[in-house]
Amino acid sequence: MVATNPLTADDLAAMEEELGAGRHELVEGELQSMAAAFVDHGEVAGEFAGHLWSVATPRRLGKVFGAETGFILRRDPDTVRVPDVALVRTERLPPLAKRHAFMPEAPDIAVEVASDSDRRRLLPAKIAMDLARGVSLVWVADPLDRTVTVHAPHAEPRVLGEDDVLEAVGVLPGFAVRVGEFFPTE
Questions:
Q1: Which InterPro entries does this entry report, sorted A to Z (predicted)?
Q2: Per-domain residue ranges of the chain
Q3: Does domain 38-65+82-182 have CATH number 3.65.10.10?
C-alpha cells in the first residue's frame, strides 16, 4: 500500500475550482465530498440563516455564514469543516484583510440539517469534533420529524419540538425562535 501525505487547508483551497459542485471538507487530512443538497435542506438552512442574521446583524453581535464557508478546526493533520449555517461573534472575526481564506477557528454556532442518509451517518463524528474544537452550540435540524437537537459542550443533547423555543444562551443574546419557524408549512 502506498502512503499518501495528508492534504492541508491550503491544498483544499487550491483544489476548490477543480472539485466543482457539492461540498468539500477536509477531515484529518482526507478529502470528504458530499453531493449538493435537496430543496428541503436548503430551505431549512436558509431559515436558520435568516433568523440568526435578524438578531446578529442589526445589533452587530456577529456574522452569519452559509454552507460555502470553511472553518479550520484542526492543524497537522488539517480539518476544515463546512457547516450548513454558522455564526461567529463579532469579537472573533478576523480583520477584513484576512477574510479571503478559511476561518482560522471554529464558529460559535454551527447548524447542520440532517436531510439524507449520508449526512445523517456523518453527523455524530462531526458534532463531537465541533464541540471538542470550540463550537459553543451545534444545532441539528431534522426536517423529517421537525425537531432541533441542541448540542453543547459537557451537556446532554436536548431535542426540541415544533412548539419549543430555540435560544442561544451565552452566545447570541436575544435569539429566541419557535422551532416550527424553521420548517416549511406547505
A1: Nuclease_put_TT1808 (IPR012296), Restrct_endonuc-II-like (IPR011335), Uma2 (IPR008538)
A2: 38-65+82-182
A3: no
What DSSP assignment string belongs to 91-141? GGPPPGGG-SS-BSS--SEEEEE--SHHHHHHHHHHHHHHHHTT-SEEEEE
* Beta strand segments in the chain, E: 23-27, 30-34, 62-65, 71-74, 79-81, 85-89, 109-113, 137-142, 147-151, 158-160, 165-167, 176-178
pLDDT tens for the chain, 186 residues long, are 444 789 888 888 888 777 766 678 888 998 888 777 788 889 999 999 999 999 999 999 999 998 889 999 999 999 999 999 999 999 999 888 888 889 999 999 999 999 776 567 778 888 999 999 999 999 999 999 999 999 999 999 999 999 999 999 899 999 999 999 999 987
**Angle ∠(49,32,15) on CA atoms, nearest 5:** 90
DSSP letter for 90, please: G
Q: Which amino acid is at 49?
A: A
For residue 119, the number of C-alpha atoms closer than 13 Å in the C-beta half-sphere is 22
Q: For the chain, what is the radius of gyration of the CA atoms? A: 16
